[in-house]
Amino acid sequence: MPLAAGTYAVFTTTEGKITVRLFESDAPITVKNFIELAEGSKEWTHPTTHKKSTDKLFHGTIFHRVIPDFMIQAATHGHRHGRTRLSLPGRDQRLAAQV
User: Fold this and answer.
1) pTM value?
2) Is the dihedral of CA 21, 87, 56, 73 positive or negative?
3) Residue 74, SS3 per DSSP
4) According to the model, what pLDDT value does residue 80 have?
5) What percent of the chain has pLDDT over 90?
6) Nearest 5°: CA angle at 67, between 88 and 64?
7) Distance CA 90, CA 30 (A)
8) What is the phi-psi region of residue 50: left when phi exceeds 0, alpha when psi lies from -120 to 50, beta otherwise?
9) Taking the chain, what is the end-to-end CA distance rounded to the nearest angstrom?
10) Which residues pair with 97 in a beta bridge?
11) Left if phi > 0, otherwise alpha if psi is -120 to 50, otherwise beta: which for 17?
């Protein structure tokens, strides 16, 4: 199925690829943060070590819940069960995405 015009993120997993559409008009700040963190062009602070990094934030992320054609859920970086929250700066905290 061809993709509609827009910005997409592709996650390569052990179970195959997951493609999500990011809705920049609905959540511009969050989408910008997501892209910069994913590409390693934005500095972030590790939630447990407090070490600053520009490593690609989502590399190695574990998706612990996948519901086909609906949603994916991943643990917070550095934690298998999402017990520590990672805060993205900015007023717009919504990440509108379509799987």
Assistant:
1) 0.67
2) negative
3) strand
4) 45
5) 22
6) 55
7) 7
8) left
9) 13
10) 22
11) beta
